[in-house]
Amino acid sequence: MQEQIAEHTAASLPNFVLKAFDAYLGGGQLAVGFCRVKCKTCRQEQVVAWSCKKRGVCASCAAKRMVEEFEHLLKSVLPAVPYRQWLLSMPLDVRYLLGYNADMRKAALAGFVGATKRH
Asked: Which pLDDT value is given to residue 5?
């Protein structure tokens, strides 16, 4: 996989990203593990491969962890009051910079919080 990335980009990916991709590509293989599910209505059976258990790449794993984290926050951390959700989305190249530059991340967060408070 690293060779294919090097062909298309000038940069290499960090090790944690490569490990997540390897786990994702290894997940979904029946040889790694699976369960058999059966529809109660039509009685049709299907085999479903285990997920990769990593964040960031596998949509199935990310969604599961997001739901688990939300339930934990709702039940154990946050008080029972109404909430408003705000979302900050950045272009992909900016996300990469923010992921590796703590000062930029801090400035972006401060700008977002300030704009949210003013709103």
From this structure: 65
